[in-house]
Amino acid sequence: MSYIDGFVIAVPDANKQAFIEHARTADSMFIEWGAIRVVECWGDDVPAGKLTDFPMAVNAGADETVVFSWIEWPDKATRDAAYARMMDPANTDPRMDPEKNPPPFDGKRMIFGGFSPVYELSA
């Protein structure tokens, strides 16, 4: 089975197009490095909860939208190799350079993790 990296971030509403452009640039790198697909989802039905919810998880402000994204990898080994390459100080890929591809969101509020699928159903 594949391996999934999931991400939740708060993006200022005014930065929607900048976010899409940032994702197009950065996501192409994941595909080149072995990802099967990358999906970026702009929240449009993200309800407030009583104890927890997506906006609380990323401390989203009234002028921000919650974005849910995932990267599907063929396996964890491919993902780990790609992440090692990203974190390598010798990596000079301009897509990783925040000066050339600045993130249009506060990365300190991002939540993320890697997940091993345990069940899958397709149409």
Give the SSE string.
EHEHEHE
Quickly count the domains: 1
| pLDDT < 50 runs, ≥5 residues | none
Strand order of the largest sheet: 2-3-1-4
The radius of gyration computed from the alpha-carbon positions, rounded to a whole number of angstroms, is 15 Å
Tell me which oligomeric state these chains represent: single chain
Distance between the termini: 17 Å
How does the overall form come out from the CA principal axes? globular
The CATH topology is Alpha-Beta Plaits
Major beta sheet summary = 4 strands, antiparallel
- Look at the structure and give the CATH class: Alpha Beta
Question: What's the helical proportion of residues?
Answer: 25-40%
Strand percentage lies at: 25-35%
Question: In CATH terms, what is the architecture?
Answer: 2-Layer Sandwich
Count of alpha/pi helices = 3
Q: Tally the beta strands.
A: 4
Output mean pLDDT. 94
The helix-and-strand class reads alpha+beta
Descriptors:
123 residues, alpha+beta, four-stranded antiparallel beta sheet, 3 helices, 4 strands, 25% strand, globular
Task: Provide structural commentary.
The protein has 123 residues and is an alpha+beta fold. The chain has one domain: Alpha-Beta Plaits. The protein has helices at residues 16-32, 54-57, 76-87; strands spanning 3-12, 37-42, 64-73, 111-115. It has a 4-stranded antiparallel β-sheet. The longest helix has 17 residues, at 16-32. The radius of gyration is 15 Å and the shape is globular.
